[in-house]
Design goal:
With about 190 residues, the chain is α+β, with helices and mostly antiparallel strands. The chain has one domain (about 1-10, about 35-170): 2-Layer Sandwich (Nucleotidyltransferase, domain 5), CATH 3.30.420.10. It is about 35% helix and about 20% strand. It has helices spanning about 60-65, 70-85, 110-115, 135-145, 155-170, 175-180; strands at about 1-10, 35-40, 50-55, 95-100, 120-125. The strands form two sheets. The protein has a three-stranded antiparallel sheet with strand order 1-2-3, with helices on both faces. It has a two-stranded parallel ribbon with strand order 4-5. Strand 4 (about 95-100), helix 3 (about 110-115) and strand 5 form a beta-alpha-beta unit. Helix 4 packs across helix 5 (about 155-170). The radius of gyration is 18 Å and the shape is globular. The model has no long low-confidence stretch (mean pLDDT about 85). One of its GO terms (molecular function) is nucleic acid binding. This is Tc1-like transposase DDE domain-containing protein.
Amino acid sequence: MSQDEARFPMVPTLCATLGVKGHRPTVGTRDCKDLLHVFGVVNRTTAAVHANTLESPKGATKKTGLGKTRRMQEGFADHLRHVGRVYPREKCPRVVLLIDNAPWHRGKPIDEALRENPHLEFKRLPSYSPQLNPIERFWKKLRRRATHNRLFDTLGDLKTSLRASLRYFQTVRHKVKSIIEGRTKRKTTK
């Protein structure tokens, strides 16, 4: 399975769009540092997507007393427990997760989650090689569908958009499979 975490900011991610001739499309913006972290796993066989979110509002360190790495470790550990429930040891005796070397992919909370789910194991990818992790291609498509050229008023609105897009991808697993395998349709010019 391909595992990773993506950050979705409240400010819009911009991309090319169509517009009416003579009128420039605009997208609002604001100075907002709130983020929604999404931990996700894509089953390489079935193309099922499983995701969990972790809100990171501005000032979260002051509110929780935990640093970013510790909050992320705990969020990732919760995600691992979720994966362990979705793929129980009785049905899946070995679940291999491809992960990068983010600091929140190791530490005490992660060790505890792995002890609770001994059938989960990590295969760490080399540093600075996101192109080797198939879920990175999925994050790109998810961002395009859920956040490009859209300004969200609240983290709840952003979360709603992401969940709707994740539900969509659950219904078109053949697309997810082609995305993670790198077989997307490319435009050809003659």
